[in-house]
Amino acid sequence: MEQLLHHLKNLGFTDMEAKVMVELAKNGDSSGYEVSKRTGASRSNVYAALQRLAGQGFLHTGEGEPVRYSMLPVEELTRIISGRLQESLETVERAMPRPGSETPFHNMEGDKEVLASLARELGRAKYEIVVDVWREEAALVCDQLEEAEQRGVRVLWACDSGEAALGQWLPRGAFQADAVPAGRKFSFVVDRRWCMLGMRGDRGPTQAVVTEHPVMTELLLNQFAQDVVLYEMENDMGAELSSRYGWRYETIIGKYVSGGPRNV
What we know:
This protein is an alpha+beta fold.
């Protein structure tokens, strides 16, 4: 018994949580009062441990009064613990600073990992979040951004519909002229310190780069500012711009991007 309690505590459970888990595993479905009586611990401590364990998904809770608790099957319990430990180990390996790399760039792949990292950072935002996404990705983070605004965080949005002015004139190089984009780009800058740049779509896995490097943060903020300024100019001077430079400013773009029109 002592050895089991010792290993449960090694996995991060408190002494009281470990005792409660073992007690429920031995006796099955029980109320907090029953657990308190059998362990000899105070009701307040037992109830606090039960609520923490239930909140973390390690216990089943029944309906009715008094609430009754029961342990997960041991195979399910160890699977959950193993998965969380593995996730923590991978995060430590990826994020731990290394000599000579004070502001590393982290590569992420898969919806689960990318969205989990983004959710953590949005939840930590204190001052400002700058968002440049497509509508599909905007729907995934809308609730978290609303929560940030309720905390007093300034949230700035830009929603991309794939109609960027440069889009159709960018040279494809070795790619086929009819190549289909691999996905939808997205970027986030939190408190002008942390940023994520990535791509998501149906033709491949979600991928992203995360960093606190000031150069990347500055590039993303500049891109956001440029998009907002162009949007405001189009709304204010759209007819004049089209008359002078052509639809979507072909004359200007053609000067600087190979493959674009030279004369309009």
